[in-house]
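As a warm-up, study this chain.
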Amino acid sequence: MRAAPVRRSVRTLRVVVLGSAMSGVFAAGCTALEPAAVGRSPLPLPAVVEAALTPPSPGWGLELALLDEAETHERFGFSFRSFDELEGDFRVVRGELYRARSGGPTPLIVLSPILAGPVDDYRASRYFARAASARGVSAFFVHQETVILAPERDAWALEHRLRGNVRDNRRALALLAALPGVDPARLGSLGISLGAIKNVLLVASEPRLRANVLCLAGADVAGILLESREGLVLDYLAARESREGLGPASVAQEFADDLRSSAELAAAAIAPRRVLLVLARFDDKVPFARGLELRRLLGDPATHVLPLGHYTSLLLAPWVAGVALDWMVERWSAPGEVRPLFEERGGPAGAVRAGGQNSAGATVGCSRRDGYTPRLESVRRRARSSRRADPPAVPPAVASVARVSHVRRTPARASVPIREDAD
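Now compare it with the structure written out below.
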């Protein structure tokens, strides 16, 4: 494997710093593609895809650990338990929550990292999380494996992980949207590159996500594999040929046959008004033509085309963050229908069901609407109370849903890749 992923974190930092100074210059070359005059109506998600992406059981045992504080947000590490139906075993899901400091309930967005997210310490996700919290929007992302395109994994193994990632994000969304200080009527997502491709599936399967930004995404994973100049993709194809004697065309055909959870099947289930697409004209990692194909499948939503390539688009990160958040706020202010996070299903005691009851039959609320904003001291009070046998001071959403058993202070540190969900 090449050393490029290690060097990418340093390059990314330099590009983002330079981009803050040059964002306005490059933004002048951006092209806005207007949405279709008559938006198409979404089609039902195919039953086989919906079943694959819907968690049969919710997550439980949410724990929050305060990592650090800033003027605009508190950053927490979070973890919860889940049952992996595909592996037939229990596992721990981990991630980070940037909870915005605000005078009232805040929106919440799901951030989906790039392919090499753990390699550069989720730098792009952290940047957009900080930008969101500065606008009063909370954000979270789930940690992913360090190496996703492992050479021993075929299309079916990656399909397995794709499904699992979408399910984990839906479980995390259900738990975190139920915390005090979060407005469950204002939910959205932002994905970049592979994260955006995965988010097409997430958005299609989770109608509560009303405002969704897809950056540098594309349709037809098999075609992307053949055309991409991304180093990690090229390494994967070379390793598959060395190990199995399968050339790039054979691997692409395998993905076309076996990758069932695809954007092609999911895009038609998304109303164009729920999506803002950001593409790069000179992108050779997720080729621009594949991005335009995704736009067509999505029903021609509003789109911005950057005059840059895949990684050089980081120069416009400040501009993209501003445009994306402005659009999200506008979308959330529009009237829309909100559906419960979980359908009526069984699950571990304390898991939320539709109708405001957990599986133990206790009535719980999804959020507080009294303008309450958690601060460090109030979180500590809830943590102390949650250890009592009968915690009268704990909001039901925390005691019955989140089950915040403790909140501890830990020094800021680099994220450690999570291996509980590895092979």
